Amino acid sequence: MSELDLIAAIRKQAGSSGGRALIRGIGDDCAIVRPKLGHDLVYTSDMALEGRHFTLDTHSAADVGHKALARSLSDLAAMGSKPVFFLVSLAFPQRLGKRWLNGFYRGLLTLAEQHRIALAGGDLANYDRVLVDVTCSGEVPAGTALLRSGAKPGDVLYVTGLLGRAAHALAADLRRYRKFQLRPEPQVELGQRLRKLGVSSCIDLSDGLSLDLHRICQESKVSAILEHVPAASAVTEEEALHGGEDYQLLFTAPKTKRIPADVAIPIGQMVPRGKSSVYYRDRPLTPAGFDHFA
Amino acid sequence: MSELDLIAAIRKQAGSSGGRALIRGIGDDCAIVRPKLGHDLVYTSDMALEGRHFTLDTHSAADVGHKALARSLSDLAAMGSKPVFFLVSLAFPQRLGKRWLNGFYRGLLTLAEQHRIALAGGDLANYDRVLVDVTCSGEVPAGTALLRSGAKPGDVLYVTGLLGRAAHALAADLRRYRKFQLRPEPQVELGQRLRKLGVSSCIDLSDGLSLDLHRICQESKVSAILEHVPAASAVTEEEALHGGEDYQLLFTAPKTKRIPADVAIPIGQMVPRGKSSVYYRDRPLTPAGFDHFA
Lengths: 294, 294
Prior knowledge:
The first copy, chain A, is α+β, with helices and mostly antiparallel strands. Chain A is built from 8 helices and 13 strands. In chain A, the strands form 3 sheets. In chain A, strands 8-10-7-11-9-12-13 form a 7-stranded mixed beta sheet. A 4-stranded mixed beta sheet of chain A has the order 3-6-4-5. Chain A has a two-stranded antiparallel sheet with strand order 1-2.
């Protein structure tokens, strides 16, 4: 397995799914993209590291590929953007062989195809751990990207789905919710729908409701009163409040904005900035979600 | 050291050097960039991994930051593009502390400032090794990016500087060329000059002359006759031919194109595709540069 052979194989597997935007993908020093007139481009990078975000025992090669891309796609969703292209940096032990590598790219490219995002390039290295870093780019009409900073006092707080399943699967080692851990589904279509609905702020729930809500409050300079925690069946309140990797979207919208019930569940309201960022049951709620350096 | 504190500190250090293009940098789910009318955007990702591309014994925190960005900037240079923004994914052991982290960002941001490229975002993780992945983006007037695939038979082959210093420093553990290992200088200005001169193909010399020249030949479907290997003083021919991390630019231009002597040294010519990609001293030259999976 030489590097030239590897790149040729990935290039073949990636196909020519580049679409309109991608002028040149894998095979040069850089990929080349021609931006769409009147659109902004958004960018995010997310790492998936062996022993930290997954293990080779619990995650198949395809799970790792899926999860690495899903994390970044979820950020594109939170901006209300349409996916355009992505780059993948992959380090892996050569002893894993071609079969593992094929599985990885199958998981990655299946999800990519589903969301019509083109593999444009990346980097490869031989290393003793599996390390993935995915950079995704999406587009939005200029000036319309959803931000964390747009929430206003009086806005209603919403979440796009039930919470805590991934955390519960991890804590209780349950088969039932295992797929939420292994194959998280980024809310890409829903994010674009929220943008068109004109919501005021948005974030994806990767690190837990309490921490990510705190982030919206910080960036918007408001506080939030959490009135309801929509826990999935069998999930503890603790898991729903602080558990990571739900990959639902948390957003705010003015009271006057009609948010269809199939889009999201109202869970609270935004208020002028108080002493604490978030209040729950009349008490300050300390962010206890997944802090990578806690 | 909490993640929120860390991000706030990086955000402060990065400043507001975003320039025109960067609508929103660190602090949201994605960075937002408004592309310049009539321009293409180019993208590249490069990993710098502890134990593979550097060690903490030989490289200071600032060296690691510099090198991680330099690798990607060199790819932007090879496309003839003007740097616009970059994302940094960084995993590191928390025990290294704030001092190491400050050093890392100082090395990174000093080089960034020098080339006027804005830190737009990235990812952070606590891990037992230092791992960096840098994604850089640059712009070129639409359709003018330099490719590996544009070389034609009859073109002259050039390199922008003397070769083998980084490889020699590594092999001989010499102080003299140590800075070429620790602080490689990407040829960003020169890359843009080559684009304006109208050269026919270009690649950056990261993996060694023999391997990178092979790549130009493969992509351009031609062969090359190497006539001269411009080794730096005290460097062996082997090091100049196959040593990595020179970060000079290797390019081709039609015979009729005048290339100023301060820009590059002619080292050979391109010929119709033969049995081998590269010939040197009347014999096929096997690519023996740095193959990450050899």
